[in-house]
């Protein structure tokens, strides 16, 4: 006797699938998510995400033009700046998918509900998106690497906080994603006392299960796919994850698309009558990139703000268990504006000059 088949609309199943996808993601959920279905057809497969512009402030001389003014009889003119917003181009870099074929026998006797098949398909797509997110995270040209963190883990984390503060990175939604070996040292540090948090949560979300706890303004998250001896401290606003659902072809009788909180997904199902097989495909377009900033600093001699001529990636830094720390050169624009330079870098005993033997 064959199993009874329940007729379910594809829109209902794809809505369930997008919820499962959101629950399966870890690192992509730490990025700003942009749902970009409305940008379909964009030139060069690229969409532009708008970033707020930067303006300097000015001082107006007190009682300008009066007898007590430094320029009596002459009224100071107001300086007007030109404002423009920046756009961050995000290029779609792939089409992540999973496809499955089911014979009539499997369809009748083994998998009577398509919802059962969708879960492993969605998991496969989630792993594909996670790999792209990890590559984006790991391959960044980080301006600062804090080395030898194993020698003084708590001090290294505090140094990471100091650097991000100097870079004027937003304090909310700061994460530190750690590799497996880094996690071991982290949980073994009695000063941090993170081990007590592991296993507390019974939530089903992969992100919640990967969370180790919160310390010094960071939410610590373990990931098995980044380098085992590394950690990455960054703000959510430092990376963008864009996704879009391809349209359902008119020739496909059973299919739907959906989006949820910046995620998009498509599901197609059809039948190959030549081999008596159903086919199921779940997929989405994806694009990842980092966000670079125009920096604002203060010139104490001129007593005015300075704005960088170049854009810099400062919303994230790298930490390693061993190895030498790497900071910007003291003469660089980044160091001049932020004060973070190789004149004082992290060592296990605290910040020290680059020439310190502890850094060798």
Query: Which range best describes the helical content: under 10%, 10-25%, 25-40%, 40-55%, 55-70% or over 70%?
Result: 10-25%
Shape type: flat
- Report the average pLDDT across residues: 82
What can be said about the biggest beta sheet? 6 strands, mixed
Low-confidence stretches: 1-7, 354-360
What is the C-alpha radius of gyration, as a whole number of Å? 26 Å
Give the termini distance in whole angstroms.
75 Å
- Strand portion, in percent? 25-35%
Strand and helix order: HEEEEHHEHEHHEEEEEEEEEEH
**Secondary structure tally: strands:** 16
| SSE class | alpha+beta
- Quaternary state, please? single chain
Separate helix tally: 7
Report on this model:
Helix 1 runs parallel beside helix 3. This protein is an alpha+beta fold. It is flat, with a radius of gyration of 26 Å. The model is unreliable at 1-7 and 354-360 (pLDDT under 50). Helix content is 22%, strand content 30%. It has 7 helices and 16 strands. The longest helix is centred in the middle third of the chain and has 25 residues, at 114-138. It has helices at residues 10-24, 104-110, 114-138, 153-166, 180-188, 206-210, 333-338, and strands at 32-35, 46-51, 86-91, 94-103, 145-146, 174-178, 211-215, 218-222, 230-235, 239-244, 254-260, 263-272, 277-290, 293-299, 304-312, 316-320. The strands form 4 sheets. Strands 1, 4, 10, 11, 12 and 13 form a 6-stranded mixed beta sheet that branches. A 6-stranded mixed beta sheet has the order 5-16-9-6-8-7.
């Amino acid at each position: 006797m064959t199993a009874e088949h329940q007729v379910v609309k594809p829109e209902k199943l794809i809505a369930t699938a997008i919820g499962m996808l959101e629950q399966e993601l870890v690192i992509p959920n730490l990025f700003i998510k942009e749902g970009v279905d409305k940008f379909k057809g964009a030139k060069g497969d690229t969409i532009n995400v708008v970033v707020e512009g930067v303006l300097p402030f000015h001082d107006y001389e007190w009682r300008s033009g009066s007898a007590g003014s430094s320029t009596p009889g002459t009224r100071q003119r107001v300086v007007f700046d030109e404002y423009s917003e920046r756009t961050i181009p995000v290029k779609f870099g792939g089409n992540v998918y999973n496809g499955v074929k089911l014979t009539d026998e499997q369809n009748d006797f083994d998998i009577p509900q398509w919802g059962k098949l969708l879960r492993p398909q969605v998991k496969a797509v989630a792993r594909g998106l996670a790999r792209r997110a990890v590559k984006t995270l790991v391959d960044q040209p980080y301006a600062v690497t804090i080395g030898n963190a194993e020698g003084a883990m708590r001090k290294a984390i505090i140094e990471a906080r100091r650097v991000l503060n100097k870079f004027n990175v937003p304090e909310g939604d700061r994460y530190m994603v750690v590799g497996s070996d880094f996690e071991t040292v982290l949980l073994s540090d009695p000063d941090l006392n993170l081990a007590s948090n592991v296993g507390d949560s019974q939530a089903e979300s992969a992100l919640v299960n990967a969370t180790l706890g919160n310390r010094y303004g960071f939410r610590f998250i373990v990931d098995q796919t980044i380098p085992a001896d590394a950690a990455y401290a960054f703000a959510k606003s430092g990376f963008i994850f864009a996704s879009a659902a391809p349209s359902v072809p008119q020739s496909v009788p059973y299919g739907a698309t959906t989006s949820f909180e910046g995620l998009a997904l498509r599901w197609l199902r059809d039948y190959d009558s030549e081999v008596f097989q159903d086919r199921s495909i779940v997929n989405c377009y994806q694009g990842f990139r980092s966000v670079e900033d125009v920096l604002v600093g203060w010139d104490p001699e001129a007593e005015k703000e300075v704005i960088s001529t170049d854009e810099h990636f400062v919303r994230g830094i790298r930490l390693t268990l061993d190895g030498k720390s790497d900071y910007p050169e003291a003469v660089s624009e980044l160091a001049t504006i932020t004060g973070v330079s190789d004149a004082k870098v992290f060592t296990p005993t605290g910040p020290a000059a680059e020439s310190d033997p502890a850094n060798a």
